[in-house]
Amino acid sequence: LYFRRPFTMFRRSSTLLPSVTALGATHLRTMAFSSSAKMIKELRQTTGAPILDCRKALDAEAGDLTRAFEWLRKRGAAKASDLQKGGRSATDGLVAIAATPYDAAIVEVSSETDFVARNEEFQNFVKNVGETAALVPPPPNSGVHSITLDALLQQTPPEGVSSLETELTALVGKVRENLSVRRASRIVAFPGVVGSYVHGAVGPPLMSGTTSIQMGRCAAVVALGTDEMPSSDDVTESLQTIARKLAMHVVAAQPRFLNEVPEDELAKERLILTDTLKEGDSSGKPAHILEKIVEGRLNKFISEVTLLRQGHMAEPDSPQISKVLAAASKQLGLKLTLEGFALYNVSANDSS
């Protein structure tokens, strides 16, 4: 269809120029194919969209690259909406920490598969989310503070040209998976320091100014408060070492609470322990004996899930963390307090 008119012209003159007829038809076909391939390549390089989608976009917009780009963006938004509404679970992904010595941000971005989690573009997006979260103005009080995701997604990364939400939509269109920014927190210690640790880190830390950014599948940040500003760089360095070791411990021990277990959690655990003992007791122990056993096991449960009561796994002989902080306070001449911690495992429940 594209060459009907040229072919008609060549047929009329074929008796005079048969060789030109064949040459002209071949040349026109080559020009048409090269032009189309070039435009598809250019659109693919710009958007990263699959070749078939680029061809469809150019066909739909009559070869207009600008309109084809918008066509792909709209298709990406529709694709993202379809994936989210379709209920496809995103149980993989990455966690990122963006930290300075005194504050940090921790984020989790979910994907459906580890194949996408290893994708360079996905990792770059995770880095952008972490870096942008670190620019959210920190609250005035020390501790762990959740970041509103809707507001975060409207922000533009420091080196970006569009919002995180727009980047996310475009990325969904490229990788064809349900992706989401699942959670984000801001951690502050002032006066004091923050310590962070990433398990199974993806590559070396990336620096953005004074902010260090690192990604992995499990990460923790600890806010270590002091009653006054450190008196020297040596003291600050010692505090940072203590905080980092605490973050390493958090990743290893997976505590659920800082110091106290909520009453509803205690009641639930007490009921489970009581029912388990009654079902397994064939000797008919008196009720007051069973109650003592339950309380003993409940205390053990509390020591296992609260950070300050756990044995420090990054210190020799695993002393209780509260005692480690007391000893460090005496040595440094400062009152050290654990203001909070954030523990993110890919697609696990929140811990803070």
UniProtKB/TrEMBL annotation:
<feature type="domain" description="Translation elongation factor EFTs/EF1B dimerisation">
    <location>
        <begin position="104"/>
        <end position="346"/>
    </location>
</feature>
<dbReference type="InterPro" id="IPR014039">
    <property type="entry name" value="Transl_elong_EFTs/EF1B_dimer"/>
</dbReference>
<dbReference type="GO" id="GO:0003746">
    <property type="term" value="F:translation elongation factor activity"/>
</dbReference>
<protein>
    <recommendedName>
        <fullName>Elongation factor Ts</fullName>
    </recommendedName>
</protein>
<dbReference type="GO" id="GO:0005739">
    <property type="term" value="C:mitochondrion"/>
</dbReference>
<dbReference type="InterPro" id="IPR018101">
    <property type="entry name" value="Transl_elong_Ts_CS"/>
</dbReference>
<comment type="similarity">
    <text>Belongs to the EF-Ts family.</text>
</comment>
<dbReference type="GO" id="GO:0070125">
    <property type="term" value="P:mitochondrial translational elongation"/>
</dbReference>
<dbReference type="InterPro" id="IPR001816">
    <property type="entry name" value="Transl_elong_EFTs/EF1B"/>
</dbReference>
<dbReference type="Pfam" id="PF00889">
    <property type="entry name" value="EF_TS"/>
</dbReference>
<keyword id="KW-0251">Elongation factor</keyword>
<comment type="function">
    <text>Associates with the EF-Tu.GDP complex and induces the exchange of GDP to GTP. It remains bound to the aminoacyl-tRNA.EF-Tu.GTP complex up to the GTP hydrolysis stage on the ribosome.</text>
</comment>
<dbReference type="InterPro" id="IPR009060">
    <property type="entry name" value="UBA-like_sf"/>
</dbReference>
<dbReference type="InterPro" id="IPR036402">
    <property type="entry name" value="EF-Ts_dimer_sf"/>
</dbReference>
<keyword id="KW-0648">Protein biosynthesis</keyword>
